[in-house]
Design brief:
Arc Repressor Mutant, subunit A, single chain, 8 strands, alpha+beta, 195 residues, 42% helix, 3-stranded antiparallel sheet, 2 domains
Amino acid sequence: MNINHETPAALEAILFACGGPVAFERLCEILGVSPEGLREAAAILKNKYQDDRENGIQLITVESAYQLCTKAYVAEYVKKALELRKAPPLSKASLEVLAIIAYNQPATRSFIEMVRGVDSSAIVASLVDKGLVAERGTLDAPGRPTLFGTTDAFLRCFGLESIDDLPKTELQMTGEQVAIDFTAEEAASGEPEEE
């Protein structure tokens, strides 16, 4: 079914009420539209939110889902309204672990430590607490080590639609470790203020 004049407004209301990402397939089912119709309604909303001076929200794509979120220029007002404390930015070590997981997921803690050459259990736990990394099962090996991967929150924080949008890198084996040819600062070009 094609969209009607209510479809963009209904999409906006659903995303506002849900607060988080809503899968494309689910939105098509709820709205009774084809994938093309959903993309058309989303384009209307994106156009509506385009002017920064007029709107404080935007429509973003995360994996195969849409979500409404605030624009960066009004984030401080939202934080004050919600009485959220400003969390410190991610440390260089945290960004390093996050990059290792993002580019090698699912990755075990022992793999991360092999790449870095130091214990990383506290950093992995911190990234899990922040919602940037999550457990993705266990490896079928002695001890059944936990596998870790990035989350939708990671994608949102770094402005990515999918993990395929990560900058391409060259991995080079250097003895026991893997060297990644970009700096932590480059990996954090979309670093979120709330982290």
